[in-house]
Amino acid sequence: FPVTIWSQGGYIALKIDGKSHKAHQLAWLYMFGEFPMGSLDHINGIRSDNRITNLRKADKKLNGENRKKHNTNNRCGLIGASPCGNRWKAQICVEGEVIYLGLYKTPEEAHKAYLAAKRDLHKGCTI
By the number of CB atoms within 10 A of the CB, which of 45, 72, 99, 113 ranks highest? Predict the structure, then answer.
């Protein structure tokens, strides 16, 4: 049967006998004999790294807590830092609540404060 492979949002996808699958789900199936129930998280954040040691079962919350990249509309390119007047604000979301971490002179300082809080407050964080 024909197999087609392509990239979809950074994930490797395959079409096998007319049905589409993401490669990380197939890796899980191969290793554990069943498709994962729910989501899988790429621990290192690299969607194309489908080594079984880089995959873990995760709900949406845990998967989101392991996020390593900033939003596409982030002006400075550093997660957790956003402009606030002539300073930079750091804040983090935990259990749906936004926690203010302070104002900083540089985006790098705000980012550093965010990462410290993330390591402490996000169970899924692997940064």
Answer: 113
pLDDT in tens, 99-120: 999 999 999 999 999 999 999 9
Which residue from 23, 30, 31 is spatially nearest to 6, judged by alpha carbons? 23
How far apart, in Å, are the Cα atoms of 119 and each of 4, 122, 123? 39, 6, 8
DSSP per-residue codes, 41-68 = EETTS-TT---GGGEEEE-HHHHHHT--
Question: Beta-carbon neighbour count of residue 80 at 10 Å?
Answer: 24
What is the pTM assigned to this prediction?
A: 0.73
Please tell me the distance from the alpha carbon of residue 111 to that of residue 117, in angstroms, as a whole number: 10
